Amino acid sequence: MKQIDAEILKIEPVAKDIFRLTLKAPDIAEAAAPGQFVMIRPVSGFDPLLPRPFSLHDWSEKQGTIVILFRVVGKGTGILAQSRHGRKLQVVGPLGKGFDITSAESVCLVGGGIGIAPLLGLAKRLPEADAYNEIAVLLGGASGEELAPLAECLDIPGLAVRLATDDGTLGHHGVVTDLMENHMTRDRDWLVLSCGPMPMLKAVAHLCRKNGWPCQVSLESVMACGMGVCLGCAVKSPAGNGHEGYLHVCKDGPVFWESDVAW
Amino acid sequence: MKQIDAEILKIEPVAKDIFRLTLKAPDIAEAAAPGQFVMIRPVSGFDPLLPRPFSLHDWSEKQGTIVILFRVVGKGTGILAQSRHGRKLQVVGPLGKGFDITSAESVCLVGGGIGIAPLLGLAKRLPEADAYNEIAVLLGGASGEELAPLAECLDIPGLAVRLATDDGTLGHHGVVTDLMENHMTRDRDWLVLSCGPMPMLKAVAHLCRKNGWPCQVSLESVMACGMGVCLGCAVKSPAGNGHEGYLHVCKDGPVFWESDVAW
Amino acid sequence: MVRGKPDLEIKIGGLVLKNPVLTASGTFGYGREFASLVDPADLGAVVVKGISLEPRSGNPPPRIVETPCGMLNAIGLENVGVEKFVSEKLPFLRENGVCVIVNILGDSVEEYGRLAEILDNAPGIHAIEVNISCPNVKQGGVAFGLDPEAARAVTAEVRKKCSLPVIIKLSPNVTDITSIARAAEDGGADGVSLINTLQGMAIDIQTRKPRLANVIGGLSGPAIRPVALRMVWQTAKAVSVPVLGVGGITTPEDALEFLIAGASAVQIGTGNFINPRATIQVIEGIEKYLIEHDMNSIHDLIGSLNG
Amino acid sequence: MVRGKPDLEIKIGGLVLKNPVLTASGTFGYGREFASLVDPADLGAVVVKGISLEPRSGNPPPRIVETPCGMLNAIGLENVGVEKFVSEKLPFLRENGVCVIVNILGDSVEEYGRLAEILDNAPGIHAIEVNISCPNVKQGGVAFGLDPEAARAVTAEVRKKCSLPVIIKLSPNVTDITSIARAAEDGGADGVSLINTLQGMAIDIQTRKPRLANVIGGLSGPAIRPVALRMVWQTAKAVSVPVLGVGGITTPEDALEFLIAGASAVQIGTGNFINPRATIQVIEGIEKYLIEHDMNSIHDLIGSLNG
Ligand SMILES: Cc1cc2nc3c(=O)[nH]c(=O)nc-3n(C[C@H](O)[C@H](O)[C@H](O)COP(=O)(O)OP(=O)(O)OC[C@H]3O[C@@H](n4cnc5c(N)ncnc54)[C@H](O)[C@@H]3O)c2cc1C
Ligand SMILES: Cc1cc2nc3c(=O)[nH]c(=O)nc-3n(C[C@H](O)[C@H](O)[C@H](O)COP(=O)(O)OP(=O)(O)OC[C@H]3O[C@@H](n4cnc5c(N)ncnc54)[C@H](O)[C@@H]3O)c2cc1C
Ligand SMILES: Cc1cc2nc3c(=O)[nH]c(=O)nc-3n(C[C@H](O)[C@H](O)[C@H](O)COP(=O)(O)O)c2cc1C
Ligand SMILES: Cc1cc2nc3c(=O)[nH]c(=O)nc-3n(C[C@H](O)[C@H](O)[C@H](O)COP(=O)(O)O)c2cc1C
Ligand code: FES
Ligand code: FES
Q1: How many interchain CB pairs under 8 A, A with B?
Q2: Cβ–Cβ under 8 Å, residues B226 and B39
Q3: Which tops the pLDDT comparison, A262 or A132?
Q4: How many CA atoms does the CB half-sphere of C67 hold within 13 Å?
């Protein structure tokens, strides 16, 4: 974990309210793992006060860069979106526990909305495709307008991306769990790695539990420190799994086995 | 007095740490008078909290613009300096009582440092030169490096500007009151209009008092409201002049007759 | 269905305010200063700068310091005195149909009573707000607002000496603000307003001197809003008279928090410095919220906090 | 003339700290979490997260809310319990030569005493900081820190049960913090630290629910700094034991204000979240200031406020 004043190398609009931010942060790029995050301080003053957590969308050890994909939802992200190239931002990272990409026959990445952010870094770093029988990528969103530019961010050669939209304007007319049910054949050993809004993660976890698919989810929470000291980012864990009631997103996660979360 | 969200039309560096800011503010330009000021809020958040006072350096009713000349001294001015064209700033003005440019045989404008800011708008709006026997402009600064670019801001055709620097690197080697003593011949009725750092104003006021020259000074003070309600910008006035001890820079000034100030 | 505008009217004692947005004392002068930006008659009421029996010249400068998301002030209660207020400041407000609440301050219970008496006879005053954060000079200088008994005594005296609605303005620098609020209610208050400023301090590290000539000042602005909101919520549960919420309110969202917590009205103080049109924008924002949430009346909102 | 480095050492009771910059309880975990950014052995001391007799799981989320220049927390004193602290957390600190101050909390005077006893026997602990902002469950639930008598009783009990220096951490939610500080001094405290958080609240106007599951939370961060500084100044004049200043400190300038006001040391809390290297930068900044102002020792600075 490092703290650096990272220069903004590039900031590009990707879609309405969505931006891709490239920062010079060699020490962080070097240590990064898929699913980890960084804390970025949007201002040098104290309003807003706290740094904001963002998943590592991508990084390059060689170029010494990290990339964030973010949606403007409030003050901090609004200020970031208006920042220009050359500005320096306080960045701490990499933080947290990322995806546990050990053994499985096939992997299914499931993303929703801005939750696709960590999936690029993850997909790029999965063991060579032939280590798995298949790498499936299933993405959901409200509409084609919203989902198309996000799906483009996952444009990796050889990776087939399947889409579902609530309004049917792109891909399957329905939700991402429909895609899972259609696609994830029962004859294989699947590992599901998922990131997206809470209701989607809940549905994904539920489906996986029903089908006996091991599943990891990347959770969000309000954070103050990002490094396990403030204890602000608590999420309930099921009774009797040894976590005394609460897990902490920044330190025990952000990626959890679905079974460790009290949905 | 108006409150507007004024667009930044231009922001140019003038010298080290000094910037010229042009804002679209037709309602303010229309009502402005020399020596008045505006309150500008540097951020939309609350840190820094208060709007900052700046003298009107110049304005154009025709173009609907106002111009501020400012020095970066802290948080607010630092943020302003980094703002780009197109950004909107909350501006309230014009505020306060400006210079009282009524009758006099000759006028002497005396400025120091960034205190030359209001003198441009003032000089441009003095009654046609022939209403006065003479319009003298005397400026002081630490060094030529500091003073030269500021003096250039007062570049009005036909106006003779005399300079003094503490280190002698430009103009007279000495202080601006030396220039006053040298230049202000005793055979004329002079009106002195002055703006600059407090020690300079004090020296100017002292000299004027000694010589019987009526003198106005533009004062600074910490301000919260800029419109006479917080009573934060108090300056001591001499006993027995009917102001119950304190004057308020934002409402009774910022320009005062030297005799109303308890130096 | 065409809906009418939501009803914003609230009552404090016998006084009806057309909407629940007021200015906080000391931050809107005598109502005239802002007139070119805000028509003071559009506000629920204007609470004027604190008035004493005799004019006061206030503390020496520096009187204000900016702090993170807040400011400290040590104005020292500079004011023109009650006589000049009535003769020079009140007529403008009266002639313009402004609902005027006069904030008063004194050194003794008697002084508060005397002020109430004088103001009771001045036409155009709709209520009195009593600033009890002032030192009780006769009783060792502890502020009235820090002691329930002193707070009750001042309230009872003002109540006795005038027929106008009486609002007691509470100090937050106490262990239990509800005990002071209850004392004010016992003394006959028609409402309580809170909070006044939190006591604070700042030091210039170069000169190693206090940044305020008075050393200590009152902290106001967004920084104190969470404290004010907590106290308003606690107080609204503790008393049955209307509570006026004050402290760091600058936006409609801020004001809505206080109303939901149980405030019948809000006052905007430092917010006027940050955005002189804050009061008007808050009124508009509250109205919009009520419409969007299908509420016919501000009373549907007041105290509507969900468990 | 070549000058040595200024002397930054301060004393609390018998404990010598190499510099006056500490972490505030609850904001630096158990010292290990920040270790890759800050060597905890470089700090004056690490005050660990509050420890109770039994482990506590804390409040349900949401537990934190950002506010203007501040944050509210309602963690609910989640901690691993004293036993696990001693067996699992303390060894790392001890082995790395960290000066450890253990912050303790309890529901009764006896519980505080029991904790002091246990910690007194654990090697590697340099002092105890007693958080008295906790409800006194046996006495109706009012926090120990709001009542001088309860504060004195807790202090005396802890003092009796251990030989370590005892620091009492004061609550700011009181009318007169100096009376609590004096009570702690009477009870045998070797120092007082202040302030703990100010009680505050925030409401989500869309759901009309409190933003914290616990409704009320503790306000910390730059927003409260002026209040903390004022209380530190008042307390430093009122007691003769060292005062540790806490509240909104994030920069060297902030820390210098507290030292000038009379604090013998400072603690950095929320500042660690904003800038994880704040503690180290504050130490460096203080050193630089002393050199620039020709001071040989931190004691030339402490309490050097000019009238
Ligand atoms: C581990 C982790 C990884 C994340 N990765 C990404 C990412 O890659 N890209 C991205 O765009 N965002 C990501 N987020 C969310 C991001 O941190 C928030 O959107 C951001 O902090 C909002 O800051 P703001 O100042 O703009 O919003 P604020 O002004 O603080 O809040 C605006 C609104 O957004 C809501 N909000 C605030 N924080 C969150 C949150 N964490 N989740 C949902 N709603 C929130 C608030 O309740 C409020 O209604 C991640 C969060 C976590 C915890
Ligand atoms: C009526 C009036 C007209 C002004 N006109 C101009 C102008 O035309 N151009 C210009 O550059 N400045 C002008 N000023 C000064 C300007 O308002 C301040 O420089 C500005 O507010 C500083 O803001 P900041 O956030 O950058 O500094 P801060 O971060 O607030 O303060 C940084 C440092 O500057 C000092 N400082 C703050 N305010 C003042 C002040 N008013 N005077 C002197 N020192 C101060 C502080 O004490 C501190 O040491 C004027 C002030 C007044 C009252
Ligand atoms: C400059 C200033 C002057 C004030 N003067 C008074 C006053 O005369 N009487 C009073 O009761 N409160 C006075 N107050 C307190 C405010 O009315 C208000 O209670 C406090 O500032 C908190 O609200 P805010 O955060 O919205 O400003 C003053 C506040 C400020 C900032
Ligand atoms: C997340 C969090 C947890 C805290 N936990 C404790 C605690 O366990 N014991 C304690 O005495 N103070 C605790 N505090 C209070 C801080 O130690 C400190 O007194 C307070 O936050 C003010 O300082 P600051 O503004 O620098 O944060 C906590 C504060 C925060 C923000
Ligand atoms: S964000 Fe502080 S512990 Fe997780
Ligand atoms: S700045 Fe408020 S009265 Fe002058």
Answers
A1: 15
A2: yes
A3: A262
A4: 37
Rounded CA-CA distance C58/B245 in Å is: 9
| Ligand 4 lined by D247 (C-beta under 6 Å) | yes
The superfamily CATH assigns to domain C10-59+77-199+219-300 is Aldolase class I (3.20.20.70)
Chain B neighbours, 3+ Cβ pairs < 8 A:
A, C, D
Three-class secondary structure of residue D30 per DSSP:
coil
Contacts of D171 (CB under 8 A, 6+ apart): D132, D133, D143, D145, D146, D177, D180, D195, D196
Number of H helices and number of E strands within chain C? 9, 16
Taking only the tens place, the pLDDT of each residue in A35-71 is 999 999 999 999 999 999 999 999 999 999 999 999 9
Q: Return the pLDDT at A244.
A: 63
Assign A130 a pLDDT band (cuts: 50, 70, 90): low
Most ligand 2 atoms within 8 A of CB, residue of B14, B47, B54 to mutate: B54
Distance D107 CA to ligand 5 centre (A): 26
pLDDT for res C3 = 63
Classify the C-alpha dihedral C30-C33-C35-C37 as positive or negative.
negative
- Taking the alpha carbons of A39, A45, A47, A49 in that order, is the dihedral positive or negative? positive
Q: Residue C73 forms beta bridges with which residues?
A: C64, C218
Ligand 5 and A253: CB distance under 6 A: no
Q: Does B236 touch chain C (CB under 8 A)?
A: yes
- Ligand 2 centre distance from Cα of residue D248 (Å): 25
Q: Is C50 in the pocket of ligand 3 (CB under 6 A)?
A: yes
> What distance in angstroms lies between residue D127's CA and the mean position of ligand 4's atoms?
18
Please name every residue paired with D101 in a beta bridge, in sequence order, or none if there are none. D47, D127
Q: Using pLDDT thresholds of 50, 70 and 90, give the confidence band for residue A242.
A: low
- Find chain A residues with C-beta within 8 A of D65's C-beta: 222
Among residues C57, D1, C274, A259, the alpha carbon closest in space to that of B76 is found at C274
Is residue A142 classed as helix, strand or coil in its secondary structure? coil
- Which ipTM was obtained for this model? 0.96
> In the numeric block, which tokens belong to residue C178?
């509800």
CA-wise closest residue to D152 among D104, D197, D106, D187: D187
Q: Is the pLDDT of residue D92 over 50?
A: yes
Catalytic residue check, D99: no
| Token duo for residue B106 | 């000759």
Over residues D188-219, the pLDDT tens digits come to: 999 999 999 999 999 999 999 999 999 999 99
Question: Does C202 reach chain D within 8 Å, measured CB to CB?
Answer: yes
Residue D130 contacts residue D155 (beta carbons within 8 Å): yes
Q: Which helix (H) or strand (E) holds C104?
A: strand C100-104
The model's pTM is: 0.96
Q: What b/e sequence results for B194-233 when a residue is b if at least 16 CB atoms lie within 10 Å of its CB, and e otherwise?
A: bbbeeebbebbbebbeeeebbbbbbbbbbbbbbbbbbbbb
Q: Are D71 and D62 in contact (CB under 8 A)?
A: no
Residues from chain C that touch D175, judged by Cβ atoms under 8 A, are 146, 173-175
Report which protein residue has its CA nearest ligand 2's atom 38.
Answer: B222
Could you tell me the two tokens for D247?
């509240």
What is residue C1's predicted lDDT score, i.e. its pLDDT?
A: 44
Domains and CATH numbers, chain A: 2-95 (2.40.30.10), 106-219 (3.40.50.80)
- Ligand nearest to the CA of residue A115, numbered in listed order: 1
- Cα distance between residue C241 and residue B22, in whole Å: 52
Extract the runs of DSSP E, i.e. beta strands, from chain B.
2-15, 18-24, 37-41, 52-55, 58-60, 65-71, 88-95, 106-112, 134-141, 161-165, 172-173, 190-195, 215-218, 234-236, 246-248, 255-257
Mean pLDDT over residues C179-189, rounded?
A: 98
Give per-10-residue mean pLDDT for chain B (263 aa): 96 94 98 97 95 97 97 96 93 96 85 94 81 86 92 86 94 94 85 95 95 94 96 90 81 95 91
